[in-house]
Amino acid sequence: MPDMSLELTWYVQCNFCILTTAATCRSDAGSGVAGNSGQMMKNQRFATIVVWITAAAYAGFAVWLGISPNALLEAFGIDQRTPQMATEIRAFYGGVEMGIAAVMLLLWKQKQVASALLVGALPLLGSASGRCLGIVVDGFSALHATFAIFEFVGFLFCVAGVFSLKNSVGDAT
How confident is the model at residue 88 (pLDDT cuts 50, 70, 90)? Predict the structure, then answer.
């Protein structure tokens, strides 16, 4: 079985950052800030941090696999490679994931934070779902199961960010 320590380390670090951020923002929620504006700022901060961490994860994978597409092939034990495989990995993992990161940050800059979170969340849900389907149809893979869990956790944090914004808007009205 190929060594997956680099890939798993990347997933764990990204999700640890999200979990730590969530715990910090949630524990600050009742810190004595008067009025709804303090809570709204906490919710906005949580959502913004989730946007930035998720976009950074997409961009990190885009750069890493754009530069070293064979790393993905090695991770799954694929020994026979063609230039076309490398190009496909660069296009999807390099180009599409960088595009997702860019759209997330552009939406965030335009103060469309919920939209930015959904742009990050839906591909994560799609990847996790596709991995789960693959496990059912093709057989269990610990690597795919691990990735699916981390992708689903990332999806949940993006959705939590959307709901935190919704709650702060609802509280302000």
Answer: very high
Please return the burial class of 90, using the count of CB atoms within 10 Å of its CB with bins 0-12, 13-18 and 19+.
middle
- Cα of 123 vs its chain's centroid, Å: 9
| Ranges of H-type helices in the chain | 5-28, 35-67, 70-75, 83-89, 97-109, 113-138, 142-172
d(CA 46, CA 170) in angstroms, rounded, equals 17
CA atoms within 13 A on the CB side of 144: 17
**Domain boundaries, given as residue ranges, for the chain:** 5-15+37-172
Task: Give 141: exposed, middle or buried? Use CB within 10 Å, 0-12, 13-18, 19+.
Answer: middle
Q: In 3D, which of 105, 89, 99 has the Cα closest to residue 123?
A: 99
Question: What global pTM score does this model have?
Answer: 0.77
Length of the chain: 173
Cα(105)–Cα(23) distance, integer angstroms = 23
Label residue 95 by pLDDT band (50, 70, 90): very high
Tens-digit pLDDT profile for residues 126-147: 999 999 999 999 999 999 999 9
Burial 44-83 (b: 16+ CB within 10 A, else e): bebbbbbbbbbbebbbbbbebbbeebeebbbbeeeeeeee
